């Protein structure tokens, strides 16, 4: 358990390789689930794989969820977890077997939203140590405020009923997390005033996902503001397709994630 700014405690779960070498990178994992459901189990398989194949320490953060804890609790908890890791001159990270100067933020879906928000928070507060971020199917903007004049946004209509996360379900998630929508970038990082000086980023999008176009828009904006950004779109695949463990695209996805983490974990 680790502390948060309001005195509450949240749980973290560690994943490490059996024969982990010292000085490992830390992958700070923010799970998906629309800010409402999910937990350490949501990306359990991927966390095991990353830890085992990259010699990194994966730290899964069990942030507080809506509707009991609405925006901005989840974002604040996730940033507080990052600050705890880097606290005491990195001794907290060292106690977990990781190097506080090699932190990779990693999140899927709503977790991708939280990872992108935490990266901006860290930049604005001068936090040192984040070397990369991985955003998989990231939620980057409330659909009510998506800048359609600047970016394509057809995926909500094209894929409204084609995936485990439908447009109607996503609307419900947003209502639980932020009942009174605003343009606050801490919920819609695509609307942040600046995305400059963020860490190297890998963005994964799925062709049959409602979040496809907001992921592409975020990648485009990062690139336009000078951030080293890789974008991979898995055509014809749905939201959370990596749960289809034997699918060839899932194997490629895992390979891509491992290679990206490996660039920063040595």
Automatic annotation (TrEMBL):
InterPro entries: AB_hydrolase_3, AB_hydrolase_fold, GDXG_lipolytic_enzyme. Residues 27-242 form the Alpha/beta hydrolase fold-3 domain. It comes from the Eukaryota. Keywords: Hydrolase. GO terms for molecular function: hydrolase activity. This is Alpha/beta hydrolase fold-3 domain-containing protein. It comes from Trichoderma harzianum CBS 226.95. The lineage of its organism: Eukaryota, Fungi, Dikarya, Ascomycota, Pezizomycotina.
